[in-house]
Amino acid sequence: MDLIFPHHECEIAQAVASQGEQMVKYWMHNNMITINGQKMGKSLNNFITLEQFFTGQHEILTQAYTPMTIRFFILSAHYRGTVDFSNEALTAAQKGYERLMNSIEELKRTPASNDSDEQTRQFVSTLCNKCYEAMNDDLMTPAVISTLFEASHLLNAINARKAQISAADLEELTKTMHLFTFDILGLRNERGADNSAREEAYGKVVDMILDLRNKAKQEKNWAVSDEIRDSLSSAGFVVKDTKDGVTWRLDK
User: Which secondary-structure segment (H or E) carries 100?
Assistant: First the structure.
């Protein structure tokens, strides 16, 4: 924002003079970037380059952060607000980004019912417009991300058999989450599209193992049932028994 005058206004003047017409309708200027609460700048010797974020080679960082984590972190704040980079904030952004990616992957395994319950139906029917309204409100990306996390909570409820969703509503939910996460916010799953077949394959294997565990429980073979659950837990899977069945997810 401190470069609007004279630098950016000069850029606009040069662009119009060279092209003979207005090139764009909107020029957006982000607010200040700070590091642990202090304005970032070369004069203060507290700046961080993208390469340092990606390698973790900076004194304030305890680890490397991926490009999508940085993007998610920036989108989590409004562009007119101050963005304060800190290791703690980046770690929280990493967890939030991974949680959103896990939810989108969970869409593939979410069971559809004959019909949606009223609360689910209403949420899905208003989700897309709610996200568009946030984007139309001066690109309020934090509100979009918050709404996508509401969708994640709904998915958790569906998979825990505390809510139900029809096939049509599940398709609409999937379409909306993909649209705003990938097409509009520009995020992508850093695990890669090439991993989708592998993700689906190991999901089927886990389901098969849990079927064996369920059979052991029906036979009251608690030792085998507990051993399967503990082995999956050691491998990084979170298995939850509910009154309506069992749910699982990979804890990353």
Answer: helix 87-106
Angle, in degrees to the nearest 10, between helices 222-234 and 196-218: 160
Locus of tokens 């700070």? 34
Q: Which two tokens stand for residue 16?
A: 């119009």
- Residue 187 is encoded by which pair of tokens? 């995020």
Q: What one-letter code names the amino acid at 67?
A: P
What is the C-alpha to C-alpha distance for residues 131 and 141, in angstroms, rounded to an integer?
Answer: 9
Would you give the distance in Å from CA 162 to the centre of its chain?
23
Q: Is residue 47 part of a domain?
A: no
Q: Tell me, letter by letter, the H, E, C secondary structure of 47-85.
A: CCCHHHHHHCCCCCCCCCCCHHHHHHHHHCCCCCCCEEE
Among 134, 150, 184, the domain boundary falls at 184
pLDDT, tens only, 90-134: 999 999 999 999 999 999 889 899 999 999 999 999 999 999 999
pLDDT at 83 over 90: yes
For residue 245, list its beta bridge partners.
Answer: 242
Whether the ω angle into residue 142 lies within 30 degrees of 0, i.e. cis, is no
For residues 75-99, give the mean pLDDT: 95
Burial string for 165-190 (b: 16+ CB within 10 Å, else e) reads bbeebbebbeebbeebbeeebebebe
- Residue 11 in domain: no
Q: Tell me the CA distances in angstroms from 139 to 8, 69, 85, 131, 150, one per residue in order.
A: 20, 19, 21, 10, 19
Both 204 and 172 in one domain: the answer is: no
pLDDT, tens digit, 9 for 90 and up, residues 189-200: 987 654 555 666
Query: Residue 37 falls within a domain, yes or no?
Result: no
What pTM does this model have? 0.76
